User: What shape does this take?
Amino acid sequence: MVSGIAQSLGSVRERIAAACSKVSRDPDDVTLVAVSKTHPAETVRAAIAAGATVFGENKVQEGVTKSEEIDDPDCEWHLIGHLQSNKARKALQSFDVIQTVDSVKLAKRLDRIAEDIGKKAYSVFVQIDLGQEVTKSGVAENELEDVITAVLDCGNLQLDGLMTIPPYFEDSEDVRPYFQKLAAIRDRLRDRGVFGDRKGELSMGMSHDFEVAIEEGSTIVRVGTAIFGARE
Ligand SMILES: *Cc1c(COP(=O)(O)O)cnc(C)c1O
Assistant: This one.
């Protein structure tokens, strides 16, 4: 599947630009995270050759192995899957951003490890669960305040934004209210100064719904299938 990557990456970028243009946004304000989970380093290299620079992995060990194999200082790696505390150290060492902080305990642990290994202002996102469904991942809304407060208390962590994985809908229009909700939460936190002078990133939108997410203000889309094809 290596040969088609430049083309599919190009078409994803065109779709991002079209969605931005629909709502008068600047495409430069939307970061494309190429979700390379399950795909080998060789495939990631093809994406790099085609201009991709930011990659998302959902498993710590897979991300560690792949990023070491690729060993490209111009690449940025985001952890987008659930982080178990026993893998926190490895994750901090190998990933540039952890998008999935979902508990006070995890935040405190990451802060201690960041201190330990000398990482300053390490970039984290709080993952919010807006779906309340079976595949529950992220902080429930009623616990959000506690987690935000904890992250702000962590001297070695920098709260850069919010992330969500909404429930899956056949019709991507049905997911719009979830994106609107995350944007509203971000706005509220930003108004309180939680993100300092940063914009407060909104990580939302995947292959089947990133256009809707962009219309609702997404600043980071996480796209796998539309770039790399279907996973095994
Ligand atoms: C796999 C994954 C994606 C990418 O999904 P696609 O539908 O392949 O674009 C995005 N975000 C998270 C958290 C994922 O686990």
User: Anything to note?
Assistant: The first helix runs from residue 5 to 22.
